[in-house]
Task: structure prediction
Amino acid sequence: MPALRIAIDARAAAEVPAGRGRYVRELLRALAGLDARHRFLLYARTAWRDAALEDDGRFAWRIVSAGEPQWSALAAVRASRESDVVLATNSYLLAALGRVPAVATVFDLAPFRRDVALPRGAGFERLTLPLAVRRAAGLLAISHATREDLVARFPRAAAKATVIELAADARFAADAPPVAARYGLEKPYVLALGTLEPRKNLPRLIEAFAALPPALRDAHELVLVGGSGWATGEIDAAIAAHRDRVRPLGHVPDDDLPGLYRGAALFAYPSLFEGFGLPVLEAMAAGTAVLTANVSSLPEVGGDAVRYADPTDVASIRDALAALLADPGERARLAAAARERAAGFSWERTARETLAALERAAGGAT
Result:
């Protein structure tokens, strides 16, 4: 195939610390590591600077200054002039409006759920995902669970939807300097990481931790890492009710995350639903025992290398926490199994499979 001009919605790289931002940043780095001859046009409001891209002439930023939905409309017009195919990582509208083939990344079907509070943009996604299903040349689901949810709601997506899993960056598996002292963490800690928002299920985790047998509870603390998201009232109340046992650190720099994972006695992620659950895989790569929920995509990621609990049941979370914190041998066994399983995921594979999907989309238009 001749070299392509590939437009990528790269806004999240600079604008979103976790979640989609991490996905875009890691994907761009991995694309830079491939030997593809294609040119990558990165559309954003603010350029994200990274050493992997700085001296690579294949990457060029295209700055479009507007909010949604104007941003997607303007980017679609410009990308239709400048590119052969578009990767829409953060806007289904972008996948629907352009005059060149587009591939849209589908993270989850959260905007269609009614059981938790959703961010302001959820309504916009509910309106625009059907457009992408109809107009896009391809749809990239980040897990089998997401693909199943997508096809269940939009059966016509089945012919277009491909599963391309994510990965943990190699730095999570490398040796990491200790960072606990810098954050004042003196006790062994249970780490929970993610944007503070309802589906992360933090109130139940906090209640489960507070309900541990006193000896276990007093020997540990619960550390929350993540910026404030939306509808945090219940989370704030739970933290306030157990302030002597819970340490909220807020957002921390990416460079400190490997050390925080590595230093934890246990990583807890009892989310109510996830498109993939990247923090679970990052903790696994770091060699930390993981407790997560037995729902949505999380068993796909953890396999037999993590411990599961019912995220809707405080007692189930408490019992799993207690069993693991009381058994260093089991934590060590899980940590070793987790590292081995995490090694089977790679951003290079994610990038190669994403590039193949874009090439198919572009080829289908010729």
The radius of gyration is 21 Å. The mean pLDDT is 95.
